[in-house]
Specification:
single chain, ADH-like_N, about 25% helix, 7-stranded mixed sheet, alpha/beta, about 350 residues
């Protein structure tokens, strides 16, 4: 049987093509992909900025949600008909020749990075979670060494503060929620349009990112320099802001490469620069993370991103890539629905 897939070729052309539906091997399930989320990582891979692809042709798309249609040998965690969300970017995933990328109508999901989702969560919203949720887990519980909620650390860090720059971004909004789940007091920045939304996620203080005295406002809210900053934007201006508000020997987590000026400023304060770009900085050490994702969503302590569905199914990729390139995505996650492809 065949399906439609968004195929990325070695000559950097990406087209919707007919391809065989992949069959699940040991440790994989086949998923009918109802929703796939866009990440900035995809357009950066496509544009050649992130050399992630090792074999062509391939299929991009790190975030998918849908229904299990087949299970591979030895799979007991999932059954046909289960509603799941899955992550396609993980160690070794570049060698699977496109069978796992979410930008297709049927994909293979590695059961280690797949979670059941409650009936109360729709596929569009759920698909916003995998890459960004995994990035957040890497930031908070890998880089910053907080005790993870799924390892007994729920509420364990009461009395500690964290600043999250860019709270309305996908990573930022999930960082707020997991930080709150860990007991941390959250101070974040965004445009005023998102203040109420971020407070609804648990942020204690939200500060206008464009305020001329943003650093002074953060320091006032925190009662002085802070120990932990997660920069979910990671442009030069935010990296420098992160260094400015950190205490001596503080920790700054970045999602993009360190800007030279920020590195120099950080060295002067002996600040640890953590994080980075791509799957090498994801959180893979505890499979139990994926076993608990659905329960957090069901409890409402982790709410999926607000989403914007682009029309056209897989053909919407150019619009999605361009919106990210132009920096026009704010406070929402872009979604495509592969099954709507014509």
């Amino acid at each position: 049987m065949s399906q439609l897939a968004l195929v990325y070729d070695a000559d950097r052309k990406q087209t919707v093509q007919s391809r065989p539906i992949p069959e699940p091997s040991n440790g994989f399930v086949q998923v009918r992909v109802e929703a796939a989320a866009f990440n900035p990582l995809e357009y950066k891979i496509y544009d050649g900025y992130v050399p992630y692809v090792e074999k062509y042709p391939t299929i991009l798309g790190g975030d998918g949600a849908g229904e299990v249609t087949k299970t591979g040998p030895g799979v007991t965690k999932f059954k046909v008909g289960d509603r799941v969300v899955f992550m396609s970017y993980f160690p070794g995933s570049t060698n699977l020749n496109g069978e796992i990328g979410a930008f297709q109508q049927y994909a293979l999901a590695d059961v280690r990075y797949t979670a059941k989702i409650p009936d109360s969560i729709d596929y569009d919203s759920a698909s916003s979670f995998p890459v960004n949720g995994n990035t957040v887990a890497g930031d908070l519980y890998g880089d910053l060494k907080f005790t993870a909620p799924w390892l007994g650390g729920e509420g364990a860090h009461k009395g500690e503060k964290i600043v999250i720059l860019g709270g309305s971004s996908s990573v930022g909004s999930y960082t707020i929620q997991f930080a709150v789940l860990s007991g941390l007091e959250v101070i974040t920045t965004s445009s005023p349009a998102h203040f109420d939304y971020l407070k609804s996620l648990g942020a204690t203080t939200v500060i206008d990112r464009s305020a001329s005295d943003v650093a002074a406002q953060i320091l006032a809210a925190a009662g002085g320099p802070v120990k932990y900053v997660v920069d979910a934007v990671s442009l030069q201006s935010t990296q420098l802001l992160g260094v400015e508000i950190l205490q001596h020997k503080g920790k700054l987590v970045l999602l993009l490469p360190t800007e030279p000026s920020a590195k120099t400023a950080a060295e002067a304060k002996d600040i640890s620069l953590l994080g980075g770009v791509g799957p090498d900085n994801f959180y893979f050490s505890e499979p139990i993370f994926w076993e608990t994702v659905g329960s957090y969503m069901e409890r409402g302590v982790v709410k999926p991103n607000r989403v914007t569905v682009l029309p056209g199914g897989l053909h919407s990729w150019e619009e999605g890539f361009d919106l990210h390139r132009q920096g026009k995505v704010s406070g929402t996650k872009l979604i495509m629905r592969p099954q709507e492809t014509k």
